[in-house]
Design brief:
about 425 residues, five-stranded parallel beta sheet, 16 helices, 13 strands, single chain, about 40% helix
């Protein structure tokens, strides 16, 4: 067991008298975390196991009968259902039981895709449930190697990890993070096994999930799309271009990107639209949710070699993923990118609580004012809402490179 940032918050929320649904991609640690927080559930269903999933698919009423067979007591019985999306009828059964008696059971469901639920119009228990997310590891959960300054201003301040008896995940340097990503189910394994595990994740897991739910008719075309989408992760999406290269229509390509988001293995970063400039690019950038999975899905061997081919782009994606995870846990704020049609670009713009923060990412160890020229132009345009900008790079310590721009080492993000 290791410390997770979401553990304290989730434990507090699980005590509330609602149905709880925890979503997140495979290998993010959902089941491990819930077993830690719910060590002795009255009933547990592992619907990833065909021997448990099959009977419930054939006879959903057996779930109702098993729950009703639990004796009445003063505290609610905890009922845990893993991979609940594989049997959508479970959500209807949970609603019936919850409406029957809100205090007799405490239902906790988790799943790794919302696609089938959305397409089938499955009951997501509106007004009765709290939805939660679990992401790959944050920087706070997996500290950097070596001593580093901590008293610095972050572009996206984030509450510290709650102190507890569980250890943090093993520390890692920048290259290891960029090479293998931040999935707990991967980084806890020996270094020599990680590339194979990530390749298996990118192919076997996706094939199992997609084929089981009959979400894609042409598997070969989807694999071609996935490889190209992974190779272009972090770039502005061109649906027509990708469709032409893989032999699919642009609407089909759009639906495949939506599929990746529904499976929690990708996210879109929309273009910033709050500038007085008229020539902004509104097309989103798309990121896979983890760099190790990205390398494997793109047909690369996860490892240092995949990073050294284009280290600046890998660092840029890692920063974007870290910002996305933090905003996801905070439950508010938005992440954008900024690009004009004449080429001016800022990697990320964070909008949170009325504050706007432009963030540029550079591989350099010696940042200077020229690296932040687009950030400075942005700050000139957004003087009231954006007083400060940041440059994330590999410098040894924070540096003030302009009155309004601070260069931060990646580990101070």
């Amino acid at each position: 067991m290791h410390s997770r940032w979401a553990a304290t918050l989730l434990a507090e929320k699980l005590r509330k008298p609602y149905v709880h649904v925890l979503f997140g991609a495979r290998q993010t640690g959902k089941t491990t975390l819930l077993r830690q927080l719910l060590p002795d559930p009255a009933l547990a269903f592992n619907l990833a196991d065909p021997s448990e999933r099959g009977p419930l698919l054939a006879n959903p009423g057996s779930f109702l009968r098993a729950c009703r067979a639990l004796p009445r007591q003063s505290s609610p019985h905890v009922v845990f259902v893993d991979e609940a999306q594989t049997v959508p009828a479970v959500f209807d059964a949970v609603q019936a039981l919850y409406d029957e008696d809100k205090t007799r059971w405490r239902f906790v469901l988790c799943g790794s895709t919302a696609r089938k639920l959305r397409l089938t119009g499955a009951n997501l228990l509106p007004g009765r449930s709290l939805h939660h997310r679990l992401f790959p590891l944050l920087l706070a959960e997996r500290p950097p190697t070596g001593p580093h300054p901590t008293r610095v201003a972050s572009p996206l301040p984030f509450p510290p990890l709650a102190s507890g008896s569980l250890p943090l995940f093993p520390s890692a340097d920048l290259e290891e993070r960029l090479a293998y990503g931040d999935l707990p189910g991967v980084i806890l394994q020996p270094l020599a096994d990680r590339a194979d595990l990530l390749r298996s994740y990118a192919l076997a897991h996706l094939e199992e999930e997609i084929r089981r739910e009959a979400l894609v008719k042409d598997w070969g075309a989807f694999l071609r799309f996935l490889q190209l989408a992974a190779a272009e992760s972090g770039l502005i999406v061109n649906f027509a271009k990708i469709g032409k290269e893989v032999g699919l229509t642009a609407p089909t390509v759009k639906s495949y990107y939506q599929l990746l988001e529904d499976m929690f293995i990708g996210f879109s970063v929309p273009g910033w639209s709050g500038s007085p400039r008229k020539n902004l690019t509104s097309t989103p950038r798309f990121h896979l949710f983890d760099l190790g999975v990205r390398h494997a899905a793109a047909g690369l061997t996860p490892g240092p070699g995949a990073v050294r081919a284009d280290p600046g782009r890998a660092l840029e994606q890692w920063v974007g993923i870290e910002l996305w995870k933090r905003l996801g846990y905070l439950g508010r704020g938005r992440l954008h990118h900024f690009r004009t049609k004449d080429g001016a670009e800022i990697d990320y713009v964070v909008e949170l609580d009325g504050r706007i923060v432009p963030i540029e990412v550079k591989w350099t160890e010696r940042p200077d004012r020229n690296d932040a020229r687009h950030v400075l132009t942005f700050l000139d345009e957004q003087k009231k809402a954006a007083p400060m900008g940041y440059l994330i790079c590999r410098c040894a310590r924070p540096e003030q490179i302009d009155d309004r721009v601070i260069a931060l080492p990646w580990h101070c993000l």
